[in-house]
Amino acid sequence: MLARYIGLSNETPYGLMKFLQLSKDSQLLPKLLTLQNSYNLLCRNFDSGLAECCHHERISLLAYSPMAMGILSGKYHLSDNCGPPDARMNLFKGRYSEGESRYKLQSPKVKAAVKISAKYGISPVTLAIAFVLRHPLVASAVFGATKLWQLDEVLQATTVHLCEEIVAEINDVHARYPNPCP
């Protein structure tokens, strides 16, 4: 059986370009179509090199963690006790050490991002997903929903237009707290 489509995950600009060169030299592989890397309104490492590579090579981004492991959903800021007890980061405390170290649940950067949604009357989930979907190289936002209302908020993001004022505020938060992710 022959692979028809190829995608990479968690890649760097060097790794992406090296793969493309090997693929071209071997002439055995079909063209690389997608790159699946983390991308959200706080973590934009993709924009630092990978976006340029993907643009020129016509590769689409499958953005995973658009809600920063659920942290941009706002549920961890509903109270001072770090969210509902059935939230993933509470149910599996210590198992998400990568996410726990990247995003402190009560950090100023996360609170600042969640406050934008409240100011404009948009759910934090809808804001986070809409921000990711507005990127011209994003083909899909890879998310997880465990409840139907969560899926409804994600789907709402496809109908929301983020005005320049909202995007400017998001960019201000990002400038103050750039790329908390590796």
What distinguishing features does this structure have?
182 residues; alpha/beta; TIM Barrel; four-stranded parallel beta sheet; 8 helices; 42% helix
Major sheet: size, sense and barrel closure?
4 strands, parallel
Poorly predicted residue ranges:
none
Number of β-strand runs: 4
Using only C-alpha atoms, the radius of gyration works out to: 17 Å
Highest-level CATH class: Alpha Beta
Principal-axes geometry comes out as globular
Number of helices: 8
Order of helices and strands: EHEHEHHHHEHH
Strand order of the largest sheet: 1-2-3-4
CATH-assigned homologous superfamily? NADP-dependent oxidoreductase domain
Q: Which percent range fits the helix content?
A: 40-55%
Spatial separation of the terminal alpha carbons: 36 Å
Second rung of CATH, namely the architecture: Alpha-Beta Barrel
Q: Please state the average pLDDT score.
A: 85
CATH fold node name? TIM Barrel
Computed structural class: alpha/beta
Strand content: 5-15%
Number of domains: 1
Give a brief rundown of this model.
The chain is of the alpha/beta class and 182 residues long. The protein has 8 helices and 4 strands, in the order βαβαβααααβαα. α2 links the parallel β2 (32-38) and β3.
